[in-house]
Each structure stands twice: as C-alpha cells, then as structure tokens.
Amino acid sequence: MKLDGFGVAGFRSFGEDIVKIPDLTKVNVFIGKNNSGKSNVLTFCKHLSRLKSGQTYKDFDRRLDYNVDCQKKQIRFAIQVKKDSPVTGDIYNKIQSMLPDFHMKFPDWASDIWLEYELWDRGHEFEIHPNIPELGKIIESKYDESETNELARKYLRSAGGTHTGRSNDIAQWISGSVYPPFEVHKIGAFRQITGEQSGFSLEGKGLIQELRKVQSPALDRYQADKGKFATINKFLQELLGEEDAFLEIPAEPNEIYVSIKGKILPLGSLGTGIHELIILAAGVTLSQEAIFCIEEPEIHIHPELLKKFIKYIQDKTKNQYLISSHSNACFDVPGVNIYHCKLVDGHTTCDLVTTDKDRGGILADLGYKASDLLQANFVIWVEGPSDRIYVNHWIRGKDDTMVEGLHYSIMFYGGRLLSHLAFDSPEVEEFVQLCRFNRNAAIIIDSDKDSPRRRINYTKKRVVKDFKDNGCFVWVTDGREIENYLVEDTLNECVSEVHPRMRRHIKWDRFERLTNISKNNTIDKVTVARKVAQKSPDYSVLDLGKQIDALIKSIHRANS
User: Fold this and answer.
1) Domain shared by 522 and 401, yes or no
2) Domain co-membership, 384 together with 533
3) For 143-221, where are the alpha helices, taking DSSP H only?
4) How far is CA 483 from CA 131, 456, 475, 477, in A?
5) How far apart are CA 162 and CA 559, in angstroms?
6) What's the burial of 526, exposed, middle or buried (CB within 10 Å: 0-12/13-18/19+)?
C-alpha cells in the first residue's frame, strides 16, 4: 500500500469542488460509462506521485488538463491521512499528539484527516502549496489565542503575531509534514509485445529483452530475478491449466515461446487474451513497491481470466493498483474496492461502492438488464429462515472463506411447497422451472420421515429427480428435519435459553419431531437456530459432515 486516498478538483473532467476517492485498498477498480472520467483518475494519480508541497511542477498541459467549464482555472488536490494505516498512520498520530484535546475538538477527524493542496500557475511552472486558509480557519476556531501561542512556541519555536497568523503557521507545519513518497507506473489500453533491444515500456515495448534478462540474470541479481521469472511462469500455468507450461526466451529471434507438454509454440499462437495477460503480469512483476494504473485490462480477455489476473496481483505482487474498466468481473472478488465514476452536471464524481443498490447503478451504466443476470454464482434453496442459519453456520465452520451473498445465496422455497402440494400442482411446476435458470444450485429438503421405513412423498421425489437431472446438488435430510442434525445437549441448552419456562427435556431421535414443546406449540426455531450458531458445530451427527463437505465443494466449483 502506497496511498490511502486522494481527491482532485479542476483537472480535466473534475469540477471546482474536490472529489474525494477514499479508502483505497491494494486493488481498486474504477467502473463507469465511456467519458465518465475513469482514465482521468488514473492520469491524475500519475501526476500526484510527483506533486510535493513547497516544490514546483512542470508537466501539466494547460490546454488539456484544466477543466474548461471551471471559472477559476486551478488544479487542487487532497491527501487522506488515516488512523491505524500502515501508510499514513504515523502522520495521523503525529498530528493527534500535537493538537491538545484532539478527539474532543476534532470529532470529524476521528478516523481520517483530509489535507488539501493547491497548484499556483506561474506561467512556466506550477507551485504546490497547502490550502493554509482552510485548515487555519479550523484550527483558529478550535483553540483560543493563548492555546495557539503555546502551540506555536512548542512546535514552531516562535510566538507572537496574531491568532489567525499563528493558526495558519500551525496549519502550514501540519500540511508540510504529510506526503508519503510513492512511484506510479501507468499501463495504457493499447498493449503489444515488441522486440526492441533498447527502451522498455509497460505496454509491451522491449518486453522480450526484459524477460530475457530475468530468465538468465546477472549474478548480482540472480535469486531475485529468477524468482520473478518463476512467478510469471506460475501465472502462465494457472492461465492455461497446464502444470508443465513455461516461457522460453531464445537468444534469437525476438520472440517469446511457450512450452506445453514438450511442444514449443509462439506466444501469439495462444490467442490475444493470453498475449495481453503476459504483458500485464510481466509488467507488474518486474517492478515492485509501486502504484500501477492500468487501463481496461479486460480487453480481449475472458472474465474468468481477468479474475485470475486480479488474484495474481493480489497474491504475488507488492504493488497497489488503480484499474479502469467496463467489466463487472471484479464484483465478487474479495478484497477489491469498486468505485463508480459518473458525470453529474458535466463533472466527474467517484463513489466507493458499498451496497447492492450501488452495484445496481454500475450495472445499469454498463448496459446490463435484470434479465441478463443470474441470481448468484451458486444458489442454495432451503425451506425457511432457520435452515439458512444452520447452513451458514455449518459452512463457516468448515470453510470461513465462504461468504453468503458473495460465493452463494440462500433462497427460501417454503415448507408448504413440498410437504402439502401435489407433485403436479402449478406452484411446484413453477418452482422447478425457476430452478432451471441456474444450474449452480443446491436444494436441502426435510425428509419428514417418522421411521426408517417411511419414504419421502411424491412431490419431493419429483423435485429431487428434476434437480439431479439438472446437475444440481440434492440433500435430503438423513433424519426427520434439519434440527435432527443437532446434538441433544446443544439443542436442549439453546431451547432452555430461549424458553426458560420449558421443563421438558427433548430426547434426540433420528425420526423424532424435535421442535415440539407440547401438542400445539413449537419452539421458536429461528431464535434457537441463532443460539446454536454461536456454538462450535458438531459434524458427527448422521451424514451432516459428508453433506456439508459436498456442498462446499459444489460452491467452490461454481466460483472457480
């Protein structure tokens, strides 16, 4: 991590008010319509690495980089300083320790501080200055004259002057100490491997020569460069699904070969998508400890390969990434932040996506309709809410990487559907048709058997057959209901907590109805399930462990 967050105003499509891009993580994807400002976010980040307070900068193009709609032609930016951050946490602590009664006087700074800077156009260059008046006003409003005098004497080795002047001096001192150094590399959307002997660009120019260097490195860099080449080869193997695949860079000609099962092929013969991914993987592996701004990596690439690339940069590199994209392939990748770029009144906004409603807004911008989308990567159909609690509890107990709403969704079909309706009723027919929309599905059915000899009813038999014929996972409980998978002591302990007046001990039996309190009363199934979910799961009852293992395997297969 090199950057926690930044903001920008007056640059290209950004208006006069600073647009904040907060809480950056290792991989950050900016999605939106064409001309919504995604590339401008990446371009400004490239500039940002070279903007240092108190210094000058010459690389802005006044013809292109000023927002033509802004009355005042000035570029401004902000840096996010976050509490407990490995990047700016020390700076936050320094500011907190300097300002007395920090938490009481600055409640808006409880988790982060945004410090603003301005670029002053001097004709031949730009000067970078902190926005002293804004921060100075905040400090002046929080402390009286004697307090700012004491702060100035303690930290600035000076006193006297006006209250406003001292507040501005303190603001200057704070802003001047805040700038984490970082390096930025930008990879454009047009990428092609070429064989130049000199000059290397991350879009592919001279890549053959660079790969040749790490394939056969000099002695002083042997271990480090050999490791990089091995990492790129490992990625190639994952892309192709071939454990013995590897790259070869011959002395002549200027070509990249791929060896698969002893057969040598030119890289270009594997298709444009693999060609593109090797460029990207090589670029982000050869350079480390930097920020990479990558434009539209999904070009020519299948969504599953794009996900493999995202996982590669998460796990195998030490860089931070800002990626512009028109793809929704990263929506369900854990650890990736999604930002929605859009034009509001002609100016770019950039919002961190945190809710399903936010995701829906992006999908609408990308042109998707509800009819284009499946329900989820994997759907588990259960009878009701208590079943959902148990299933989530048992899945998490064996694999805590599984997340409901990300790797799978749980939907209810209702006990009446399979227990009380005829197998050929319209409701059952509609349910079976609905399930055929997503073949990555499972259904969990209470057998309702009261003895080993009893068989499940015809409606359940029909649904079991249809799900199995559709390639779905089917789990009919080995006991009467899902509660029969609970250990007797655990069930009674949790029932007693929910129903303290209940005196009857529930004796476990495979085919007993364990949810009855009396003839006409049943336990609060949902609340009891929540109590059970607070305890460690026991998979030894009946076939519970076997079924959960098989269910998790099916979910993984749908998400792989």
Assistant:
1) yes
2) yes
3) 145-155, 163-176, 207-215
4) 63, 17, 14, 10
5) 64
6) middle
Sign of the alpha-carbon torsion through 501, 507, 508, 510: negative
Record the tokens describing residue 322, joined without a space.
């800002």
- Residues in the chain, overall count: 560
Alpha-carbon distances of 533 from 314, 386, 546, rounded to whole Å: 32, 10, 19
Average of pLDDT values for 38-58? 91
Q: Mark whether 528 and 433 lie in a shared domain.
A: yes
Angle between helices 272-286 and 207-215 (to 10 degrees): 60
At 96 the pLDDT is 93
pLDDT category, 421, cuts 50, 70, 90?
Answer: very low
Better pLDDT: 511 or 438:
511
Secondary structure E strands in 98-141: 112-121, 126-130
Write the CB contacts of 280 (distance below 8 Å, at least 6 apart in sequence). Answer: 187, 191, 294, 297, 309
Q: How far is CA 168 from CA 97, 131, 156, 209, 332, in A?
A: 18, 10, 12, 53, 46
What number is the average pLDDT over the span 125-144? 92
Same domain membership, residue 286 and residue 162: no
Instruction: Please report, rounded to a whole number, the percentage of residues in the chain having pLDDT higher than 70.
Output: 92
Kindly report the backbone phi and psi dihedral angles of residue 65, in degrees, each rounded to the nearest multiple of 5, phi listed first. Answer: -95, -20
pLDDT at 506 over 90: no
Report whether the peptide linkage leading into residue 100 is cis, meaning its omega lies within 30 degrees of zero. no
Number of domains in the chain: 3
CB 212 within 8 A of CB 195: no
What is the structure's pLDDT at 422? 47
- Domain residues for the domain of 253 are 186-328+363-369
Confidence of residue 127 (pLDDT cuts 50, 70, 90): very high
Contacts with 479 (C-beta within 8 Å, 6 or more apart), sequence order:
447, 449, 485, 510, 511, 542
Vertex 5: Cα angle to 4 and 10 (nearest 5): 155
pLDDT for 424:
53
* HSE (side-chain half, CA atoms, 13 Å) at 184: 21
Compute the chain's Rg from CA coordinates.
30
Per DSSP, what are the bridge partners of residue 77?
8, 117
Distances (CA, A) of 485 to 231, 389, 525: 45, 13, 14
Q: Which of 151, 176, 201 is the last residue of a domain?
A: 176
Higher-confidence position of 428 and 265: 265
Instruction: Judge if pTM exceeds 0.85.
Output: no
